[in-house]
Amino acid sequence: MRFEATVDVQLKPGIADPEGATIERALEALGFDDVARVRAGRSFHFEVDADDAGAARSRTEELANRLLANPVIEESTVEVTLLSEVTR
Amino acid sequence: MPPTVGVVVFPGTNCEYDVTVALKSIGADVELVWHGDCDLDALDAVVLPGGFAHGDYLRPGAIARFSPIMDAVREFADRGSPVVGICNGFQVLTEAGLLPGALQKNKRLKFVCAPTTVKVCSTDSVLTCAAGSGRELAIPVNHFSGSYVCDGATLKELQSEDRVVLRYVENPNGSIDDIAGVCNETRNVVGLMPHPERAMSALLGSCDGEVLFRSLLDAAVQPLKRGTPARASTDALTPMSRQVL
Fold it and tell me: A8: phi > 0 → left, psi -120 to 50 → alpha, else beta; which?
């Protein structure tokens, strides 16, 4: 089966986020002063072949922890959805 | 015979020749080592120089840590041999887990290219063993992600074990506890953001980088004596003021 995976990587709470802070100031300058606590992260999208959703999720979590996020300062959340019953 | 220092070159490294010239100027033999190689056996010390290894894609050092040479660097370090990471090399060593913490984007998102003054806070490391404790060195920085971060427990450990080897006198990037350089538990792996290879000539502003490279060559020839600051008495000593947040 083929799954679509999304990995969202964010700085851990408590780690200073100068990018988020800068974006927040820019938003404020544009009149979006009702916005607060901006955090900037990044997301990754890819497809993964696995026997079931659980296997797809654990494979994705493994690669997220190994490469996509630096566990010292970042944390990641993973989502997988079924794309096709067929492995390509 | 002079010690032979390996200078590791990743795709995107750009300070390898500056480091080579600096090391040769104080008598070392230097070999450039490609990141795809996996043998460091003939070397007495290894330097990971600055630049943008693998384009700094994802995070600085995130891809480089998986280069074949990094297994050899880990084994080399595990044997107690000296390993120094400068700037991008420091980022690679933290990503590889050979040094604690991480280098985050600078405070205020400023790329900082400026002279800085760093203070030698511990002489018990392969990069500072020939420098006097408390000595201030003029060494430039050149980075975007140089703000050192770690969790509270790690910071306490670094402080109590005297593993912050260099601190900025004026913090240029928001690093926690003004940290400019740290060492590992066994003090043979050191990472620093400032570029000592760019402080090797009075004509260009400073030759304070020399004492750090001399320390490295000393350590390459004679491994650190554990528990005692090597050669701490050779330089003018001032009481070390430990800054604890």
Answer: beta
Whether B146 has its CB under 8 Å from any CB of chain A: the answer is no
Please report, for chain A, the start and end positions of each structural domain, with discontinuous segments joined by +: 2-14+41-84
Q: Tell me whether 0.90 is exceeded by the ipTM.
A: no
- Is residue A19 within 8 angstroms of chain B, CB to CB? yes
Q: Which two tokens stand for residue A16?
A: 């200073």
Task: State residue B54 phi and psi, 5-degree precision.
Answer: 50, 35
pLDDT tens figures, B143-197: 999 999 999 999 999 999 999 999 999 999 999 999 999 999 999 999 999 999 9
Task: Delineate the domains of chain B, giving CATH numbers in brackets.
Answer: 4-225 (3.40.50.880)
Cβ atoms < 10 Å from Cβ of A70: 23
Smallest Cβ–Cβ distance between B174 and the set A16, A68, A72 belongs to: A16
CATH of domain A2-14+41-84: 3.30.1280.10
